[in-house]
Amino acid sequence: MGKRQQLGTILWALTCGVVACGKANNAAVTNDIRGSGGSAGSTDGSAGSTGGSAGSTGGSTGSTGGSAGSSGVAGASQCVPGTGGPGGFGGDAGCESAPIDTDTDPTNCGQLGHVCDPVALASDQGLPGAVATDATHVYWLNSGSNTFTGCTFSPTLPDVCSGNTVGTHDGAVMKVPLGGGTPIALAGGMGSLRAIAADATNVYFVEYNQWFTSPGVTDEAWNVMKVPLGGGTPTILAERQAAPTAIVIRGANAYWVNYAGSSGELMTVPTDGGTPRVLAEKQHELQTIAADSTNIYWADTPYGGGGGLMTMPLAGGTPTLLTAARGILSIVADGTNVYWIDYPTSNDSVVKVAPRCGGTPTTLATGMNLDSLALNDIGVFWFQGPEWDPYSVMKKPFGCGAPTKVASGTLPSSEARSVGLAARGSNVYWTNYGPRSTFTKSTPVGSIAHANGVVMRLGSCTNGRCE
Question: Is 102 part of any domain?
């Protein structure tokens, strides 16, 4: 290049400025959720180059960040550069999967997705229903055969009974070690049993009895009771309650809900005995209760809507609506979150979770006829299945992961229906009624004894092998 040409170049640079001529980058300012901006337009005034790269990745298992930033704006001239496009937004923080121990997890034993086959802890049980666990045992209620004694049936007249009882007294409170063994009756010769809870001293349950005071006229009683873990004579904690449906123990108190239509009650009594106390009244269709270390949770669900998931301190206070819901059937709580099953319509059901102090609920699963939630160290469990047909035991792991079936409720026969669910550690426990029967006035007396129910759990996983 000649000296004259070099001088022209120097003068051009001084006039326009080297940075101003196609080298500037006026990219948008970025933050921790945006990608970097695009580069400036080129020196000849064409469109600027593509914008910033995708936003940063979300959580440790989150999805990839957002899309790249948009293209830069065209430069007006060689001396007026184009503007870089704004950076793309970062991706949403993804959920983080809980650790999976394939050495001990019976739903991922030895490898992900390998579920240990169910095993029977107790067979030949009479209508096993509600189930609970502690660190050493599984407890359940043989809810009674519901057979009738001394009655003569007529298609057009009220039932006339020569005796003074309806229903044989064969309900029993049972236990068996978590690992299996010989079932032991803690209390027997009882009426129809429902609802169960356990603490370090006792098993708590509800007994129902009905009897005839005269032909065609009956009386009945629902009692909240307890029996020592080692067995013995049951003690009444609260008598003649209004159809209790669920019970939970926290500290030195028992809490339960009385169904009672639109006059439902949330109740409590000391586990050592005392006067039952009403914590909330005029509740609707009460069917379930849960508690953590500070609060009680129940469902006030008026027919036709308008209620929802309720909460209150254990000591009592003003009931607070945690979230609206149409028809809640089961609630569990872990001190951080509350989980529940809701029926937003008569044909659909969902498993939801929300922070214990309130917040937007998250849907974990949807399906037909979901029921009986339980929590353990590895996830959330529930029943799912067509009405009155065999149920499946479902699991949703904490964090990421879709619901999966871990067991079928078909044992011991294809007509078995699972009716009770509990979870502890990494395992889950449930009961099967056994084959169902239909009772009508023409059914012979004593024909529906149901003595082939089963108490189940998943097989244990030890060192990555199912046992």
Answer: no
pLDDT for 220 equals 85
Smallest Cα–Cα separation from 36: which of 108, 101, 88, 112?
A: 88
Tell me which DSSP letter residue 400 carries: S
In the sheet that holds 244-250, the strands lie side by side as: 244-250, 253-258, 264-270, 277-283
The structure tokens 């609630």 sit at 331
Question: Which helix (H) or strand (E) is 9 found in, with range?
Answer: helix 3-16
Task: Looking at the structure, tell me whether residues 172 and 319 fall in a common domain.
Answer: yes
Judge contact between 145 and 128, C-beta under 8 A. Answer: no
Separation of alpha carbons 395 and 374, rounded Å: 10
d(CA 53, CA 68): 4
Residues 125 and 51 in one domain: no
Reading the block at residue 264, the tokens are 């439902």
- CA triplet 88, 94, 97: central angle to 5 degrees? 160
Structure confidence by residue, pLDDT tens digits, 272-281: 999 999 999 9
* 77 and 213 co-located in one domain: no
The rounded radius of gyration (Å) of the Cα atoms in the chain is 32
Decide if 416 contacts 432 (C-beta within 8 A): yes
CATH number at 410 reads 2.120.10.30
Q: Tell me: the pLDDT tens digits for 384-425? A: 876 555 578 999 999 889 999 999 865 433 344 556 899 999
Residues in the chain, total: 467
What does the mean pLDDT of the chain come to?
A: 76
132 touches 204 (CB < 8 A): no
**b/e burial code for range 90-99 (CB count within 10 A of at least 16 → b):** bbeebbeeee
How far apart CA 462 and CA 80 sit, in angstroms, is 71
Which domain, by its residues, includes 43? 1-96
Number of domains in the chain: 2
Q: φ, ψ for residue 120 (rounded to 5)?
A: -90, 125
